[in-house]
Specification:
Length: 142
């Protein structure tokens, strides 16, 4: 009986310590298919290219990374600013060089390569979604 109690206690303690912190942008269902062989997806044909797509809480940003010379390396983020998601201006815009996303409400910037915040005033990264490469189509989902 004592061993059973210790086991349950340790498992409970482990479950509590592994609790993931929730992202401030609200959870929404995402399951978007993006064809790569249409003109609007042309920027995704080369590394460092990015596009906007509908879906997510305030829209999606799809970014072509190409890590380790892999042709199927894409990242997808929600366009909602992590710190201002509830405000009308709280939408991420892509910089002209397609390397950064910036919030419309303030000076917050995010690296599109991995979604991390740039500068010391931001700590929450962009909300990311999973991406599956299906040949001529990307699937973005959570």
């Amino acid at each position: 009986m004592n061993k059973h109690f210790v086991f349950v206690f340790l498992v409970s303690l482990l479950a509590i310590s592994c609790k993931r912190e929730r992202h401030p942008v609200p959870e929404v269902f995402v399951d978007a298919y993006i064809p790569l062989n249409i003109p609007s997806s042309l920027p995704l044909m080369s590394p460092g290219g990015a596009i906007y797509h509908e879906g997510g809480y305030k829209g999606l940003i799809i970014y072509r990374r190409m890590l380790s010379n892999s042709s199927d390396d894409f990242a997808a983020y929600d366009r909602a600013c992590p710190n201002d998601w509830e405000r009308t201006c709280g939408r991420i815009n892509i910089s002209n060089d397609m390397q950064f996303g910036y919030c419309g409400c303030d000076t917050a910037q995010y690296l599109l390569y991995d979604g991390s915040a740039v500068g010391d005033n931001q700590s929450v990264p962009l909300k990311f979604y999973r991406v599956q490469f299906l040949g001529n189509t990307l699937r973005v989902f959570n």
